[in-house]
Amino acid sequence: MKAIRWHPPSFDIRVEEIPAPKIEHPDDAIVKVSLAALCGSDLHIYRGHGGPGITAVHTCGHEFIGHVVELGSNYGVDSAKGRPELYATLKVGDKVVSPFTVNCGECGVCRLGYTCRCPSGLLFGSPALEGGQAQYVRVPKAGATLFNLNDPHSWSSSLPAELKATALAGIADSSLLMLADILPTGVFAALQALNHPKVLPALTGRPFPTSFFPGEASAAMVAEDRTLTFAIIGLGPVGLCAAVSLLDMLASKELPFQIIAIDPVEDRRAKAMAIYNKIDTAGKGKGTFETCDIEQAKKRCVGCSAVLEVVGNTSAISLAYDLVRNFGAITSVGVHGQPPVPFTGSQLYAKNVSFDFGRCPARAMFPLAFDLLVKRQDVFGEVGGPDSLVDRIVSPDEAPEMYRAFEKNQVGKVVFKMN
Ligand SMILES: [Zn+2]
Ligand SMILES: [Zn+2]
């Protein structure tokens, strides 16, 4: 089969013919990949910043959609009862999308919803597990990992069952592919920021610590105290998903807010604003949305209630620290590589700042992301426009050039047509 492969030490992507994967464990499924996406976090390994363990040649990619072509012997048998649902119901031919990490669905970590940190978890597109930028991919623990798009009853949703099925039929695969990582991760960043305990005084109108308890809003708090200010640092595909998600949450809760979306690249700022302009009045809620570069941000938005950091490098996280208010929260979903975090304990103490770091539990976030995908097809449905999230769909043969261009911010979200 054809596969997009990373070679050490860095900046070396090759399109190669390799053997197709086989079932290695009874819980495995083999998926024939129709579309696979290139992601900002693929760039960490591409640049050679994957860490000391990342030295082996491997197939890239952790975002893919396709069809099941083979199942291990644990599917459709009596012993599947009591296990995650898809062990009993998944069939060859079903269309599936996979979260970017494998999880078992049967341990305490998974039961709490922290699926990205399952002890049996593996990241696609790493030396530990071959990636999805290939014509076929092996999915371990597939009965707990995959989503069966042929059976929308198999995941929860706030949408009525009929609407769910109808909506699903109308959504392009290139749009459904966003459910593998970038949309759940964007929703995760927004959800963590808006639900952070540090945001509660503005949200409830009750000062700390009465904000933790039921009661009336304080008459002493003025409108300015209750206006939530969010900065989003990084307007790549995940940053755009975070912005759309945050807007949706704020609009549906009818909260007053300001969102300041920050990126040094003018094209990315223009896309963020084009996407915002595409959203209808109801979706914009009771707040404002503006974009700015880093210097403007430093002048404009010191004192944010919360900062969403979606880049994953030391300058982005330093900027987040500068922008957040005392008693503010930073939620960081960027992949931070080797350099240490650029703060001292006394800096953190001096601002009473809270940090949420880490990987999105994409499987747990999938239902919320799916509902947003359905609701915001105006943003997520199209390909190639100035206001669409997916920039282009290309042949895998273009992978070396697309990696190069994506790394240089010359293209947006790229999708490879693998079959
Ligand atoms: Zn990704
Ligand atoms: Zn688990």
TrEMBL record:
Pfam families assigned: ADH_N
Superkingdom assignment: Eukaryota
Matching InterPro entries: ADH-like_N, GroES-like_sf, NAD(P)-bd_dom_sf
Swiss-Prot/TrEMBL cofactor(s): Zn(2+)
Domain Alcohol dehydrogenase-like N-terminal: 26-143
Keyword annotations of the record: Metal-binding, Zinc
Name of the molecule in the record: Alcohol dehydrogenase
Organism: Roridomyces roridus
